[in-house]
Every structure is written in structure tokens, then in C-alpha cells.
Specification:
The chain is of the alpha+beta class and 293 residues long. It has 13 helices and six strands.
């Protein structure tokens, strides 16, 4: 599952914080790509802890063009929101046990294969997600393992500026989709939607037992997310229809293909489904609780 919303990114970051309590969240990015926005970044909140990567190197005279290593604190939500909103393959987030000084030393040794050599102008733009992705897919995994050794979780963008999470390990350096994390995310969204629906549309909920209601809502949320309903109001709109009509109507292959149609606003999809699908409630026709996908 890609990380489509700021809410989803925050969920994964918070989940990592809980499972990696001794690790720090860092942001490594190329500030030279958009100087105006980069300057705005440093005015968003209290002065962050950071280092320019060109500090104390042979490129220090170009420090105004240096990429930055920034330690993100628990109170730096505005920084995360800014980068998620404006960053277009400018860098990446990662978790590490390193102190800020240790992180600086590591990344300087990575981007300068021959440290402080005036004669050697080689600069490995590791902080560029395009370069990082190519290294993750390198046929020489040991080089990538060494470079990413301090990183326990990476958050970066693909060629379409779509955020995703990557966990570099010795066993596999491919992008992994964390099913457990995704399941927790679906459950968290489902519980929030359930509370809202009990308040706003209780008649849709009362026909279910507790167990079947949980299963129905989680299945509906899963389908909504796969259909690019990423905002709370769009997920709720689909859930109301889902709980009203049931799986036989909305789980058909034809309906699923339509829901995956790109570039259609959610309100148009919901309107089309209301106009074109039978209005009969099919939940009572299901002999067992729905299978969560």
C-alpha cells in the first residue's frame, strides 16, 4: 500500500516510533532544489537540530548549496507536513539509532567516496531518491547494505512522486509492503469510521452483530482505500453505501473495475454506484461474515 495521505504517513511514523523507541527520525534532503521553500522550512517551528552535509569538507565553500541532515523531534509536525506536501523527490525520512553527529559522519563518508580529496570531485547524490532507489535495486547488495546500515525504515517517493515505505535488510533490499502495518492502519480507520457511523447513521449498524460489524467495516475500508478513497469523508460515503447494499452488490468484478478507474472524483463514483446498482440489501443473503481482504 502506498502512502497516499499525510494521515497515513503520520500513522506509519508513529508506529515506527513505538516499535523503535531508541531511534531518531531524520530527514535528509537537497535544499538547493528550491531555495525559497527550503528557507520557509526553517521558519516553521523552533530552530531544528541540523547539519549541512558539506560542513567541514572540501565543498564547504558551497555550503549554501549543501543538502541538509535534520533531526525531526516529536514536536516537528509542521516540518513533516511541509515536506510531505511540497517535497518532489527532494530527499527521504529515515529512523536510526545514530546521534546527529554520528549520522553526519556516516552520510559524509557515503556521499564522498574519497573524503576531503580536492582532486576527486566525485559526489554520490545518495540523498536524491532517484539515486537511492537505483542503489536499493543494485546487483551489488553489500554496497547498499553498508550505505543503509543505520537506517531501519526509509520513507521516500517513487517516479510518480508517490510516497512509500522501504525497509532495507540483509535478507532483502526490495521495497516491502508491511502487511501488519497496513492491517493496523485499516483497523484504526475502521474504528474511527464506526464511531462516526454510530452517531450519524445508526440504522446501518444495528442489523449487524458485533463481530460481523467489525468484519464488514474493515472490508469496506479496505476496498475504499484500494479505490483511492483516501479522505475521511470519501471513505465514509463509500462505507454508507457498502453497509446499505452489501457485498453481493459492491464486490462484483464489474464494480471493482469501476472503482479502480483513475482520475474520477469519489463523489462521481458514489453517484454512479447509487444510480446503477440494485438497491436490495444483500447482507442478509451472506451466510457468513465477510472475509476481510
Amino acid at each position: 500500500m502506498h502512502i497516499n495521505t499525510l494521515e497515513m504517513l503520520n500513522f506509519h511514523l508513529e508506529n515506527d516510533r513505538q516499535h523503535l523507541p531508541k531511534q531518531h527520525l531524520y530527514l535528509l534532503f537537497d535544499s538547493d532544489l528550491h531555495s525559497e521553500l527550503s528557507s520557509t522550512y526553517f521558519l516553521l517551528d523552533d530552530t531544528p537540530e541540523y547539519y549541512p552535509l558539506f560542513l567541514n569538507t572540501h565543498l564547504e565553500e558551497h555550503i549554501h548549496s549543501s543538502p541538509y541532515l535534520i533531526k525531526i523531534s516529536d514536536h516537528s509536525q509542521k516540518f513533516i507536513e511541509w515536506f510531505f506536501t511540497y517535497g518532489k523527490q527532494w530527499g527521504f525520512f529515515y529512523f536510526s539509532e545514530h546521534s546527529l553527529d554520528e549520522a553526519l559522519t556516516h552520510w559524509q563518508s557515503t556521499i564522498f567516496p574519497h573524503a576531503n580529496s580536492v582532486k576527486n570531485n566525485t559526489l554520490l547524490r545518495f540523498y536524491d531518491p532517484k539515486v537511492l532507489r537505483s542503489l536499493i535495486g543494485d546487483q551489488n547488495p553489500q554496497k547498499t547494505i553498508d550505505s543503509l546500515a543505520p537506517c531501519h525504515s526509509l520513507y521516500l517517493q517513487d517516479d510518480n512522486n508517490q510516497w512509500f515505505k522501504c525497509t532495507p535488510t540483509e535478507a532483502s533490499l526490495s521495497v516491502t509492503l508491511h502487511n501488519q502495518d497496513d492491517s493496523l492502519y485499516v483497523k484504526a480507520i475502521s474504528k474511527r469510521c464506526e464511531l462516526i457511523l454510530w452517531d450519524k447513521s445508526p440504522w446501518l449498524m444495528e442489523k449487524f452483530s458485533h463481530q460481523s460489524l467489525d468484519a464488514a467495516i474493515q472490508q469496506g475500508v479496505g476496498i475504499a482505500l484500494k479505490s483511492n478513497f483516501t479522505q475521511q469523508h470519501s471513505i465514509l460515503a463509500f462505507l454508507r453505501l457498502w453497509l446499505e447494499l452489501g457485498p453481493e452488490t459492491l464486490s462484483s468484478e464489474k464494480t471493482q473495475r469501476y472503482l479502480l478507474t483513475p482520475n474520477l472524483p469519489y463523489i462521481e463514483k458514489i453517484h454512479h454506484l447509487r444510480e446503477s446498482t440494485p438497491t436490495e440489501d444483500t447482507w442478509n443473503q451472506a451466510p457468513k461474515p465477510p472475509i476481510i481482504i
